[in-house]
């Protein structure tokens, strides 16, 4: 199962990065800049040779299946000519550099709008509410298990996160209050639980506990209420919701940097690849809406982080462009060193976050 989860996360990340790079590719083509290579994955190339060439662009499939890249003619400042990135003016370069970020924003916007039209699951924050833009309840979900206590009655019976509770001893359960009242009244008894696991109804036999430290049944369960907007309000609400996510992402990134330098710890709000795999392994249990929300959040996070004025990122390259526009003299060699140092720093940061992810899982 864990292999499938990892493959799922890799597939989502790869797809989002590939469409990000396709944004750079299509923008470069529109501006008349030659794209020398569009790579799926990272080198070495499979088989050690070029995969396919169309026009002036080599389309390659590479051994490391995470994301992709585009290589533009003259992006390092070494090649000149009318089809070189190096000779383009400020605005064409800006459109090329920020096209990937724009594509990731668009993907997130489309998914958020869609979810707000069909019903958004709980996201841990208040949905936008102002003027005529008001959320409405679009469906009361079933009583869903969010967590199962280790060694509890639920754990021993085989109930897992994401299962929905229907009844205990033929007594229907509409909410967490009814669940808590029934289990307390029948503590220590053997009961028959009807639940749904991955959409299939199952029957479980459990002996309810009496130890309050692990709970009578030992689950945290809530109704997954769906909320949304009318067709015309959803696109507006999606923009506001995305702005809230952007601010939360920036705050989390800021807390990460401050925590590293002041407390020498990684904020719990930040997860690396290992932490994201762990999160995704839980999310898939709750159905397609949560998976779509996960994809939109990752796409938006990629857009925000890439837009920051940090070396090696799109925002960092744009920052250098702005400095040059303001008259700061920066040679191609110094710019390349600047981005290389930033790349090394980002890899180091990712390693630190991954170590923190592993420590949290113990």
Report on the structure:
Helix 1 crosses helix 6, helix 2 packs across helix 5 and helix 2 packs antiparallel against helix 7. The chain is of the alpha+beta class and 362 residues long. Strand 6 and strand 7 form a beta hairpin. It has three domains: 88 residues, no CATH class; 180 residues, no CATH class; 82 residues, Pdz3 Domain (Roll), CATH 2.30.42. The protein is built from nine helices and eleven strands. The two termini are 19 Å apart. The longest helix is centred in the last third of the chain and has 30 residues. The mean pLDDT is 88. The strands form three sheets. Strands 5, 6, 7, 8, 9 and 10 form a six-stranded antiparallel sheet that branches.
- Category by helix and strand content: alpha+beta
Radius of gyration: 25 Å
In helices, the fraction of residues equals: 40-55%
Mean pLDDT over the full residue set:
88
In whole angstroms, the N-to-C terminal distance is 19 Å
Q: Globular, elongated, flat, extended or rod-shaped: what is the shape?
A: elongated
Number of helices: 9
Profile the largest sheet: 6 strands, antiparallel
- Oligomeric state of the chains in view: single chain
Low-confidence parts lasting 5 or more residues at pLDDT below 50?
none
* Number of DSSP E strands: 11
* SSE order, one letter for each helix or strand: HEEEHEEHEEHEEEEHHHHH
Strand content: 15-25%
Number of domains: 3
């Amino acid at each position: 199962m864990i292999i499938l989860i990892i493959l799922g996360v890799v597939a989502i990340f790869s797809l989002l990065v590939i469409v990000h790079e396709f944004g750079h590719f299509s923008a470069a083509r529109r501006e008349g800049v030659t794209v020398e290579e569009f790579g799926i994955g990272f080198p070495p190339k499979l088989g050690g040779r070029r995969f396919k060439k169309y026009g002036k662009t080599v389309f390659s499939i590479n051994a490391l299946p995470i994301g992709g890249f585009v290589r533009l003619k003259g992006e390092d400042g070494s090649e000149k000519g009318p089809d070189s990135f190096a000779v383009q003016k400020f605005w064409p370069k800006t459109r090329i550099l920020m096209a990937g970020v724009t594509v990731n924003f668009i993907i997130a916007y489309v998914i958020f709008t869609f979810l707000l039209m069909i019903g958004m699951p709980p996201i841990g924050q208040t949905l936008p509410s102002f003027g005529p833009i008001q959320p409405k309840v679009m469906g009361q979900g079933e009583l869903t298990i969010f967590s199962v206590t280790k060694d509890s009655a639920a754990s021993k019976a085989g109930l897992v996160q994401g299962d929905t509770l229907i009844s205990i001893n033929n007594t229907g359960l509409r909410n967490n209050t009814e669940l808590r009242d029934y289990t307390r009244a029948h503590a220590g008894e053997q009961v028959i639980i009807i639940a749904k696991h991955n959409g299939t109804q199952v029957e479980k036999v459990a002996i309810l506990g009496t130890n309050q430290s692990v709970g009578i049944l030992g689950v945290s369960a809530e109704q997954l209420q769906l909320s949304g907007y009318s067709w015309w309000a959803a696109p507006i609400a999606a923009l506001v919701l995305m702005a809230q996510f952007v601010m939360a992402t920036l705050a989390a990134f800021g807390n990460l940097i401050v925590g590293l330098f002041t407390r020498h710890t990684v904020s719990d709000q930040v997860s690396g690849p290992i932490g994201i795999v762990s999160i995704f392994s839980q999310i898939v249990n709750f159905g397609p809406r949560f998976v779509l929300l996960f994809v939109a959040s990752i796409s938006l996070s990629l857009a925000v982080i890439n837009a920051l004025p940090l070396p090696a990122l799109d925002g960092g390259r744009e920052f250098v462009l702005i400095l040059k526009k303001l008259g700061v003299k920066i040679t191609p060699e110094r710019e390349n060193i600047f981005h290389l140092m930033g790349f090394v720093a980002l890899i180091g940061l990712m390693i630190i976050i991954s170590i923190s992810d592993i420590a949290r899982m113990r």
